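Here we describe the complex-level prediction in full. Unlike the single-chain runs in Section 2.1, the two entities below were treated as one system.
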Amino acid sequence: MNVGIEHYVVVSAILFALGLLGVILQRNLLIIYMGLELMLNAANLALVAFSRFNNNPDGQIFVFFIITVAAAEVAVGLALIVALYRKRQTVQVEDLARMKL
Amino acid sequence: MNLALLSHEWLVVALGLCLLVADLWTPASARRILGYVAAAGLGAILLYSLIAVRPELQPACGNMYVLDGLALFFKRFFLAAAIIVLLMSAEFFDRLQAGIGEFYALVLFALTGMLFAASANDFALLFVSLELITVTFYVLASFQRTRLNSLEAGVKYLIMGALSTSFTVFGIALVYGISRKLNFNDLAAVAPQFGGNRIFLFGLLLVLVGLGFKIAAFPFQLWAPDVYQGAPSPTTAFLAVGSKAAGFVLLLRVLFVAVPDITAQWSRLLIVISGITILYGNLCAIPQRNIKRLLGYSSIAHAGYMLLGIAASAATIANTTQNPGAGAAAVLYYLGGYLFAVLGAFTVICLALRHVENEDIPALAGLGQRSPLLATTLTLAMVSLAGIPPLAGFFGKFLLFKAALAQGPAHPAYYWLVAAAIAGVVISLWYYFGVVHAVYWSKEAANLSPISISRTMRATLYACVAGMFFIGLCPGPLLDCAAEAVKALRL
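The structure predicted for the assembly as a whole is:
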């Protein structure tokens, strides 16, 4: 069987959907954050595959930017979640409901 | 490479780094002064920009970055907003337990992201500048680490922001996969042939999701009220003005430079989103008790009004009309008036509600006696946001509605959109005047001690009031700038 661009795109779409499901269904902030990372990496996979099959290096260079930015985002995000845990001793989303009408 | 074109960005980054270093040698008691230094530095950069920089069509960095009229308009806008925000945060310093020096530096780095966003002509730069703004705002929103509301706001912004980023990146991947282009100009050349390609259109839609999150348009507005309420007031002010305007400049570039032909097909979608955003923001603002939360809902409504201008421009691509740039120029003008009204309102919130745990509207009671200047500024800001003549908000709304009505004969949907917008304006009078009522006529004033205002804050308030009046009474200069700026778009 030849692995074509469709296979890569389908796999990346499945990964993206799994990440999105995780974000929507999970109640733990850390697991939600893992889902978000999975979504970003699904996009990376699609970009690299498109770049390879289109013979155009722009996509691969863009992936480096995404990886770098995602690392910065994780650093800030985990620090925030730790700060929240220190204050409330919980990382469940149900407990983030102080501000309401 | 033509790095001289990036002078605004270099200067702001250098200022931010100098500030971080200077923070090490400054005693804690004097750190507050650094904010004034940073604001003065930005003032110098703004002056340099006004005097020395002319819009050139030269691209830099392989055509990723352009310095055209639109970019320059927004760069000056962001610089002006950041100056007021820095002065506001210098006043706010006693409520920021973590280092105030870092707060100033982060404001400058977020500003750098906005400056890059104003010039982005490529999906890669769009993504990087958007993330520079968003990631900095995660920290700025949760800066009061000991206040639970601030942390909660930060975490909510983090999750929603990261989610919208993933949508944007996946959308860019699909657009790139089909068209092989990341650059807006290259994409514009090939986009018409993909008008029927579903994957391409889906990718573009996902990119718009990310931008819709930035400007807080329906249905991506859920984060706005909570984050506006919980974040420190200077952050909220910068989020309401800078971050929203950055979303709009990117939206204008993507819609009218990269894919104008597809935007013309999507005018109906823009009409629907704009109408729902206006009604949602205004209706949900009515029962609010917290003034920052109220301004959060009102900012959603204002995003809707500005989307109305973009929807009006989208229709002009297909049918040639007399004045094709009217809608987009009205958006730029509206942002100018919005800047002074929102920053004025948040400066008042910073000063008047200094010793109050929650910024509830009843806490404003008696402000008319405590400080006539603060009361007048807040009233004028509310009046301008509501859109009552002669202030800036009225003429901005007038121009937006006029641009939309001009498209009415061809597409009757625009009449319905303007009707919804006018209904929104009428609803908004109710809650804006609720604030004014609390300021002057509330009977439950407990504390009537006068509020002392420092000289810089007094000057800031005067500047905001003067801005609202000037833009409203002589709209000519700003309108000319806006009309000149939108020539960069393909309308």
